[in-house]
């Protein structure tokens, strides 16, 4: 086991030496301890690395061969949102790999051919890089593929005939792909927008003809002028010979016959008109009654047609009024607007700008629907709202509750999120009214704080947006009790940055510079709210009960609120110090969210080393 641990640790350090040129990864070895399973982003099973998630660590080097490829038990590898460059090495030794995120880097070269040998691969994201060349036909052999994003590169050539029934998320937009999009059952499921940005693509799926029909009446091509002797015989062959005398005679006969036919047809028409006039003069009363009945029938038919036309117009107006359900970031269309509207709903709570419901669809899928309050939202432009929702819907991180779809009309705006089954951090801390609030164990505080910091740092770095409404009720617990942020990036939709009602309902979370002013939320105001949330985790008290104290006094107050962590005073002091730094009155004195995350991870590393030393591990 020791050799296995040493092998995985050295593989991680070899990767760090080539990829982490700015020394941002806190990976290290010491003579007394090799504890690579406790390094940030590393998850182990039985001492072997099975998950490596290094998102947004500011890596600026290369993904060198013979580094991470030695982690032969690796199942999940995520290096997204860094600045890694160069080609992707041969990954064929990672036979257990199921998830690979390399998006939002600067990788170059052709599509990594070794990926085609990873038959357990389910998730592959190479988007937003500099890959070039053709897509390999072997993509069709990855029969477990569920998620495939290749958008934002420079791939060329044609799209392979992907027809894996497992494929649910797909995007090849913004490349240089050409040719007809294969019409397969799988590719027919995806919107044409997921193929956009490839001017050379054509076919039924992208609604563009590959070989447009020539007009029926084509302009007559002029014969080229006579060529001199010795010129190319192929060019001379294009000159049309003059018509012969027999052809001229045949054309004259055809014209004469056509004129005769036209004269005969004209004579028949004149005869029928004369007969109809004579018949009308001799018409009887019964025949008039029949004509009247026929007229009534014709009127009824016309009236019915008008009613059908009116009904069609009304339906069209209703469809236009109802808007459409817009899915984000290549999400599969797992439900329709009608299913959403007819779902059984349960109200979960009212927030700053809307009400949240739990919706059970008829296919037993559960989603969370946030209905925005029209009186509290400021953005009225449909296009502006769509652009913002597309930006928010593109955010994907394990510590964010994903926005899956949205819907809007003039009167209604809905946001559809994943449903989180384990409630909020607010409920975890404060419980119900019948139970007494109790501070969480410091290890739980550390875990939740790290998760929240991961999510906030990702928002600030990946999208240059802000959460704007961080509080314990907006931190939900996922299936594995991981902390996930919700209601993020919606502050821009609020009619005013902050109102008196908001301060009364969620006091203490707003940074001083945003209270009762026209200033919008900023990354530094998110940091302030994080500091308040951390104190709430440590003390079990809502922000309205937090005293204004100096950092040294703050630690004493935190200690007095807890009666079961006497042996953890030093660890509580470290977390309290982070909370105090985040809660500085001046935004310039607060650290960035990325610096906060590093501080929390350093505390975690220190604690792990202390615990191992106490247990006597070498």
Total of domains:
3
Shape: globular
Low-confidence stretches: 1-5, 213-248, 279-298, 300-307, 310-322, 497-506
Number of helices: 13
Outline the biggest β-sheet.
7 strands, mixed
Write the layout of secondary structure elements.
Elements lengths: L1 H18 L22 E4 L2 E6 L22 E3 L6 E2 L12 E3 L4 E4 L13 E3 L4 E5 L12 E3 L4 E4 L11 E3 L4 E5 L19 E3 L30 H4 L8 H37 L3 H38 L2 E3 L9 H5 L2 E7 L3 E7 L5 E7 L9 H12 L9 E6 L4 E6 L6 H6 L11 H21 L12 E3 L5 E3 L14 H6 L17 H17 L11 H10 L8 H14 L10 H23 L3
Helix pairs in contact: 8-10, 8-13, 10-12, 11-12, 12-13
Could you characterize what this model shows?
With about 625 residues, this protein is an alpha/beta fold. The chain folds into 3 domains: about 1-200, Leucine-rich repeat, LRR (right-handed beta-alpha superhelix); about 315-420, Phosphorylase Kinase, domain 1; about 420-618, Transferase(Phosphotransferase), domain 1 (Orthogonal Bundle). It has 13 helices and 21 strands. It has helices at about 1-20, 235, 245-280, 285-320, 335-340, 380-395, 425-430, 440-460, 500-505, 525-540, 550-560, 570-580, 595-615, and strands at about 40-45, 50-55, 75-80, 85, 100, 105-110, 125, 130-135, 145-150, 155, 170, 175-180, 200, 325, 345-350, 355-360, 365-370, 405-410, 415-420, 475, 485. It has a 7-stranded mixed sheet, with helices on one face. A 6-stranded parallel sheet has the order 4-6-8-10-12-13, with no helix packed on it. Strand 16 and strand 17 (about 365-370) form a beta hairpin. The chain is globular. The relative contact order is 0.06. Mean pLDDT is about 75; it is low at about 1-5, about 215-250, about 280-300, about 300-305, about 310-320 and about 495-505.
């Amino acid at each position: 086991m020791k050799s296995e641990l040493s092998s995985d640790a050295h593989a991680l350090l070899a990767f760090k030496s080539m990829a982490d040129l700015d020394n941002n990864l806190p990976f290290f070895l010491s003579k007394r301890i090799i504890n690579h399973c406790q390094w940030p982003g590393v998850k182990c099973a039985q001492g072997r690395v099975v998950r490596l998630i290094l998102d947004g660590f500011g890596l600026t080097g290369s993904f060198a061969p013979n580094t991470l490829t030695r982690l032969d038990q690796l199942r999940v590898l995520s290096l997204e949102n860094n600045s890694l460059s160069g080609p992707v090495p041969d990954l064929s030794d990672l036979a257990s790999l199921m998830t690979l995120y390399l998006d939002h880097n600067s990788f170059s070269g052709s599509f990594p051919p070794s990926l085609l040998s990873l038959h357990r691969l389910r998730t592959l994201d190479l988007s937003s890089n500099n890959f070039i060349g053709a897509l390999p036909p072997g993509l069709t052999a990855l029969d477990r593929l569920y998620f495939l994003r290749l958008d934002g590169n420079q791939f060329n050539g044609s799209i392979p005939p992907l027809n894996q029934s497992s494929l649910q998320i797909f995007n090849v937009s913004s490349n240089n792909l050409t040719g007809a999009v294969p019409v397969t059952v799988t590719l027919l499921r995806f919107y044409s927008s997921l193929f956009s940005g490839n001017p050379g693509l054509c076919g039924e799926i992208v609604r563009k003809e590959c070989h447009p029909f020539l007009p029926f009446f084509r302009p007559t091509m002029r014969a080229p002028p006579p060529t001199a002797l010795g010129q190319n015989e192929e060019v001379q062959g294009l000159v049309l010979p003059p018509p012969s005398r027999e052809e001229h005679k045949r054309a004259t006969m055809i014209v004469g016959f056509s004129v005769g036919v036209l004269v005969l047809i004209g004579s028949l028409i004149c005869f029928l008109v004369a007969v109809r006039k004579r018949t009308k003069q001799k018409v009887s009363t019964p025949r008039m009654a029949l004509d009247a009945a026929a007229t009534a029938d014709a009127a009824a038919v016309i009236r019915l047609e008008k009613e059908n036309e009116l009904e069609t117009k009304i339906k069209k107006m209703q469809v236009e009024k109802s808007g459409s359900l817009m899915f984000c970031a290549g999400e599969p269309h797992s439900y329709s607007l009608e299913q959403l509207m007819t779902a059984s709903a349960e109200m979960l709570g009212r927030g700053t700008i809307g009400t949240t419901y739990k919706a059970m669809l008829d296919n037993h899928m559960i989603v969370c629907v946030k209905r925005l309050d029209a009186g509290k939202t400021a953005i009225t432009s449909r296009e502006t709202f769509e652009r913002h929702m597309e930006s928010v819907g593109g955010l994907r991180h394990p510590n964010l509750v994903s926005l899956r779809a949205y819907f809007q009309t003039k009167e209604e705006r809905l946001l559809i999120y994943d449903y989180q089954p384990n409630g909020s951090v607010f409920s975890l801390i404060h419980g119900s009214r019948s139970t007494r609030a109790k501070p969480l164990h410091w290890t739980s505080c550390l875990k939740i704080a790290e998760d929240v910091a991961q999510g906030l740092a990702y928002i600030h770095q990946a999208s240059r947006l802000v959460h704007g409404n961080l509080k314990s009720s907006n931190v939900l617990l996922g299936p594995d009790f991981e902390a996930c942020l919700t209601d993020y990036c919606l502050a821009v939709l609020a009619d005013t940055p902050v109102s008196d009602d908001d301060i009364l309902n969620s006091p203490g979370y707003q940074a001083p510079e945003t209270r009762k002013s026209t200033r919008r939320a900023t990354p530094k105001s998110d940091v302030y709210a994080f500091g308040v949330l951390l104190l709430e985790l440590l003390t079990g008290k809502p922000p309205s009960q937090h005293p204004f104290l100096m950092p040294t006094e703050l630690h004493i107050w935190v200690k007095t609120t807890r009666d079961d962590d006497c042996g953890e005073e030093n660890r509580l002091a470290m977390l309290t110090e982070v909370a105090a730094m985040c809660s500085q009155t001046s935004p310039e004195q607060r650290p960035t969210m990325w610096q906060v995350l590093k501080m929390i991870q350093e505390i975690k590393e220190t604690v792990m080393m202390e615990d191992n030393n106490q247990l006597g591990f070498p």
